[in-house]
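Quick one, tokens below. Sequence please?
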């Protein structure tokens, strides 16, 4: 088992073609599904994973599926382990952005947002992780009025490319932010 070989296991869920986090275990949905514990059980022991990174993954789940996926992650995370999660921000006040990230996406079946089932805001995402037993720290998010808030966060704990901090599209004006949280197992 991988968890017997490594003492500090860091996992990227739905890594796609990106490798923004060298040294992390990069997985695809077929290998490690948030809604199927079998893949987790085959690769990791309970309480063995230090960190999980999921960039634009949880919006492909309903709210209840998100809670269930978070509960599976909770089981495999160590005490004080965390999920760094980024999703599209439902409170970002930009019509083009909201049209792009909306449930079902903007159009063609091959658009990445076609399978979006929810557009979270900081309240729904926090609630979802809290229902699974996590303590939540907001890192980047928009409030109800669309005002952007950001805390200092360290990319060594997991790089989120689609962020104010790392996405060059956001260097001068915020055009494609993410709602980013750390959900911590206490």
């Amino acid at each position: 088992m991988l968890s017997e070989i490594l003492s500090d296991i860091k996992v990227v869920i739905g890594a796609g073609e990106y490798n923004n986090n060298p040294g992390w275990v990069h997985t695809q949905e077929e290998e490690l599904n948030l809604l199927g514990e079998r893949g987790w059980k085959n690769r990791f022991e309970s309480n063995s994973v230090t960190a999980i990174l999921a960039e634009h993954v949880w919006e492909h789940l309903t709210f209840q599926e998100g809670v269930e996926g978070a509960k599976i992650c909770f089981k495999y995370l160590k005490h004080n382990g965390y999920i760094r999660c980024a999703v599209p921000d439902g409170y970002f006040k930009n019509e083009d952005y909201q049209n792009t990230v909306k449930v079902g996406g903007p159009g063609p079946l091959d658009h990445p947002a076609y399978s979006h089932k929810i557009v979270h805001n900081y309240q729904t995402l926090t609630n979802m992780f809290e229902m699974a037993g996590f303590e939540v720290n907001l890192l980047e998010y928009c409030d109800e009025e669309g005002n952007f808030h950001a805390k200092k966060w360290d990319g060594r704990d997991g790089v989120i490319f689609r962020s104010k901090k790392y996405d060059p599209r956001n260097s001068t004006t915020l055009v494609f932010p993410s709602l980013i949280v750390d959900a911590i197992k206490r």
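DSSP finds five helices and seven strands in the chain. The radius of gyration is 16 Å.
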